Amino acid sequence: MGKKVLIIGSGGREHSLAWKIAQSPLTEKIYCAPGNGGTHDLGENVPIKATDPDALLAFAQKKEIDFVIVGPEAPLVDGIVDLFESADIPIFGPSGELARLEGSKVYSKELLKKFNIPTADFQVFDNADEALSYVRAKGAPIVIKADGLAAGKGVIIAKTLDEAAGAIDMIMRQKQFGFAGSQIIIEDMLEGEETSILVVTDGTTIVPLVASQDHKRVGDGDQGPNTGGMGAYAPAPLVDEAMAHKIISEVFEPLIRGLKKEGKKYKGILYGGLMIKDNQPYVLEFNVRFGDPETQVVLPKLKSDLLELMIKTTEERLEGVMLEWDPRYCVGVVLASEGYPGSYEKGKEISGLDTVAAQKDIYVFHAGTQRTEGGKIVTDGGRVLNVVGMADTLILAKQKAYQGAEMIDFNGVHFRRDIGDKGLKLLFPQAK
Ligand code: AMP
Ligand code: GLY
């Protein structure tokens, strides 16, 4: 008997997870809650929000779900893994306690310090006046971070003391992020190149996935406001074998071993957002789930069975697991709604999806889309689609991704034109 799998979430990440899980011979049926216009074709979308754990549990019990995969961080931080485990339903992800690695930046930084893992020097404050005098003593540039989840907006890179003071005021006095800002971290600014390293771990064994690079700013050349991520590519040439080794031995091993010694087994995906400076990795943040849009460029490269890998993780049987990878490059471009990351309209009809579907080595993962009753696909979010090109070289993968992106249209669509260029610059430093 195959497995009935419930995937929680509705983004491009969740569509790519569903796509990969659908390829597993272990899978019998996929449910996505709430899913999107793309996951609709891979299984059944269930109209339950990712943030409604009780309804999700009731559904899982009714349908006799065999395995649950959680996409976004909020339910993990709220302890959905503990809830499903107490009902004896296997679920992939860390406990609520360990999900604080993402849910509380203070918790995360203090663990980093305790286990001697390289990260920017920092101080924690719960008092705005003390924070201000620290910033004055330190000088700018400096980084101000709200402790809790703030939908990716809780980090301010202050170039001047005025900006830093404004950030402290906004988070601590005006309480822009509510309770998430009752504590702040002030840390040194690190300059370097960013990379995302995701590992799968069962609390003892660490299995790394290929390195990728996200593009957080809305505009080409990293200009404009931050977004959820406008595109990614993998593998990232920034992380060669020696660097990958260094990251595992200096970041992930000390963390996972240190936690285990305290009787805490981290199970699931652990995502390290790292800054590499002078050949040394520093942790900027941890996430306790797959990255979005990183997953959309990592999973097409994974040849191994993802469901089997996840089951082994929850059963603590990762020892000896070696993943098989397609050596080709993937470049993924996010097609966004007009106005994103600010406000945007929904419901714009999307054309060209069938044309792209007929292309070899171009994948489209839906994010903010919805299927109407008449069967049309319309926009339903800020980040609408991910178009992923796969090829032997990074430049060809980039060409494929943009070839696909150009075939798709909806009113107001915009996307970055330079996804992959940072990797190309590293691979071909002389080229203009
Ligand atoms: P975080 O949510 O902690 O990853 O921060 C969001 C983004 O802010 C990161 O992806 C970096 O681009 C930037 N950032 C965070 N911390 C630092 C730092 N100490 N120095 C420079 N940039 C940072
Ligand atoms: N790509 C950034 C994130 O998933 O947090």
Write down how many β-strands occur, each being a DSSP E stretch of 2 or more residues: 22
Say what oligomer this is: single chain
Q: How far apart, in Å, are the first and last alpha carbons?
A: 56 Å
Shape: globular
What is the annotated CATH architecture of the largest domain? 2-Layer Sandwich
**What is the mean predicted local confidence, pLDDT?**
94
CATH top level of the largest domain is Alpha Beta
Tally the structural domains.
4
Largest sheet: 5 strands, parallel
Per DSSP, what share of the residues sits in E-state strands of 2 or more residues? 25-35%
Give the low-confidence spans. none
Total of DSSP H or I helical runs spanning 4+ residues: 14
Question: Which structural class should the secondary elements be placed in?
Answer: alpha+beta
CATH homology group of the largest domain: ATP-grasp fold, B domain
Key terms:
22 strands, binds glycine, Dna Ligase, domain 1, 14 helices, 4 domains, 432 residues, alpha+beta, binds adenosine monophosphate, 31% helix, five-stranded antiparallel beta sheet, Rossmann fold, D-amino Acid Aminotransferase, Chain A, domain 1, five-stranded parallel beta sheet
